[in-house]
Design a protein that fits this description.
two-stranded antiparallel ribbon, 2 strands, 2 domains
C-alpha cells in the first residue's frame, strides 16, 4: 500500500508541476512576444505616456494592448499580477524532487558506481548545490555586472559548466541532470520573487504615492525576465531528459548537458529576434547543425564481442535466462524490486516470446546506453551484455 500511495503522490505532483509549468512558460512566452511586437503608438497615445501598443484577434474577438513607458497616471481598480504560475511551478517541482530524489535517494540519486553516499549526505549535497548555484547567481546579478550582459553571460555559463561537471561526479546521471534543472528552475522562480515582482510593486507604489517611478526598477525586472527567457528551453529539456539515456548516460554527460543548454538557448534567441522582425535563419540552422553534430559525436559505439563468443550459435534459453534474471525483478507481473511495484511502462518479461518484441528497446537501453538494469542494481555483467548484443546482431532469432 505504501508504494501505491507513493505512485499516486508522484502522479498528482508531477501532473500539477506540468500544468503550472505550462501556465508559467505560456505566460512568459506570451509577454516576451507581446513586448517584442509593440509598435510605436499614435501621437495622442504617446502624449499619455504609452510606449507601444498592439492589436490582435483571437477567439472571435479583437484585442488592443498598450504598454506604458513607466506607469499610468493612476492604478486601475483591477490589476492582474503574474506570479503564482512561477511560485506553484517551483513548489510542485521541489516536492517532486523531494519525493523522487531525496526520499528515494538510494534508488534515484545515489549511484555507488560513481560515489558511495549515504542518503543524508546525498540530500545535503543536493540542497547545497541548489543553494550555491542560486546564491552565486543572485550575488552576480546584483553587482555592476548586470550592466555588462556579455561578461555576465560568460561567467554564468562557466558556473553552469562547473556545476554540471561537479554534480555528475557525485550523483547518478539522472540525479545530476535533475539537480541542474532544480538550480535553473530555482533561479527562474527567484528572478520572479527577488526581482520582477518587487520591481513591479515599487512601480505601483510610486504611482499610488504620486511620485515618478525609478527607471531602475523596470530595467531590473527586464533583465531578470530576459534571463528567464533564455533558460526556458534548457529547463524543458532537462524535465524530459530522463527518457533519453543516450544524453545523461554518456561518459561526458556534463558536457552534453552544457551543449544542449547552448543549443536550446540559441533556438530561443532565433525566435526572440524574429519577434522584432529580424530574420536570422543562420542562428536556427546553426542550432540544428549543432544538434546533429552532437548526436553524431555521442552515438553509441558497437559493443566489442569476443571472437570466441561471436562464433557461438545463439541459445534463446540463455537469452531468456539473462533477461528474466536481470530485468524481471522490475519487469514482471508482480515485481520483487524494492522501488518498482508495478512493471515500468507496463513491460513484462516472462519468456522469450514476451522479450523479442522489445528487442530494439533492449538494444537502446541495455546495450547502447547501459541505462538498464536501473543503476545496474541486479549486477548484469559485461559478458551478459555481449551475449545480448550478439543475439540482437544476429537478428533477434
Amino acid at each position: 500500500m505504501e508504494s501505491y500511495i507513493s505512485e499516486w503522490l508522484n502522479l498528482i505532483i508531477r501532473f500539477a508541476h506540468l500544468v503550472t509549468g505550462i501556465a508559467w512558460i505560456g505566460a512568459s512566452f506570451y509577454f516576451i512576444w507581446l513586448d517584442n511586437h509593440l509598435q510605436k503608438p499614435p501621437t495622442w497615445k504617446d502624449e499619455k505616456g504609452i510606449k507601444g501598443d498592439l492589436w490582435a484577434v483571437h477567439g472571435g474577438g479583437f484585442y488592443e494592448v498598450a504598454k506604458y513607458k513607466l506607469a499610468p497616471p493612476e492604478i486601475p481598480t483591477t490589476l492582474h499580477w503574474f506570479k503564482w504560475e512561477a511560485y506553484t511551478t517551483w513548489i510542485t517541482g521541489f516536492l517532486l524532487l523531494t519525493l523522487m530524489f531525496y526520499i528515494g535517494a538510494e534508488s534515484y540519486l545515489i549511484d555507488k558506481r560513481i560515489f558511495d553516499l549515504t542518503q543524508i549526505q546525498a540530500v545535503a549535497i543536493g540542497l547545497g548545490s541548489i543553494a550555491f548555484g542560486v546564491g552565486s547567481y543572485e550575488i552576480l546579478v546584483r553587482t555592476k555586472l548586470k550592466d555588462h550582459g556579455l561578461i555576465l553571460g560568460f561567467i554564468l555559463i562557466g558556473l553552469a559548466t562547473a556545476l554540471s561537471y561537479g554534480l555528475t561526479q557525485v550523483f547518478s546521471a539522472r540525479g545530476a541532470y535533475m539537480h541542474m534543472g532544480a538550480i535553473i528552475g530555482t533561479i527562474m522562480a527567484g528572478n520572479v520573487f527577488f526581482g520582477i515582482i518587487p520591481s513591479q510593486k515599487a512601480l505601483v507604489k510610486a504611482v499610488e504615492e504620486g511620485t515618478k517611478p525609478d527607471l531602475a526598477f523596470g530595467l531590473n525586472a527586464k533583465l531578470r525576465s530576459t534571463h528567464n527567457t533564455y533558460t526556458t528551453l534548457p529547463i524543458l529539456f532537462i524535465m524530459i531528459s530522463n527518457h533519453y539515456p543516450m544524453t545523461y548516460n554518456h561518459q561526458a554527460n556534463w558536457l552534453v548537458l552544457v551543449a544542449i543548454i547552448f543549443i536550446t538557448a540559441a533556438i530561443r534567441q532565433y525566435f526572440v529576434l524574429r519577434h522584432f522582425g529580424k530574420q536570422k535563419p543562420i542562428i536556427f540552422i546553426g542550432a540544428i547543425i549543432a544538434m546533429l553534430l552532437l548526436a553524431y559525436l555521442i552515438a553509441p559505439k558497437s559493443i566489442e564481442i569476443s571472437p570466441a563468443l561471436k562464433n557461438q550459435s545463439i541459445d534463446l534459453t540463455k537469452v531468456e535466462s539473462i533477461i528474466v534474471s536481470r530485468c524481471a525483478s522490475c519487469h514482471s507481473n508482480i515485481p520483487t524490486d524494492d522501488v518498482f511495484k508495478i512493471a515500468p511502462a507496463g513491460i513484462v518479461f516472462t519468456d522469450i516470446e514476451s522479450i523479442q518484441p522489445w528487442a530494439a528497446r533492449i538494444k537502446a537501453r541495455v546495450i547502447d546506453s547501459k541505462d538498464m538494469p536501473f543503476n545496474n542494481k541486479t549486477n548484469m555483467t559485461d559478458e551478459e551484455r555481449q551475449y545480448l548484443a550478439l543475439w540482437l546482431e544476429k537478428g533477434n532469432e
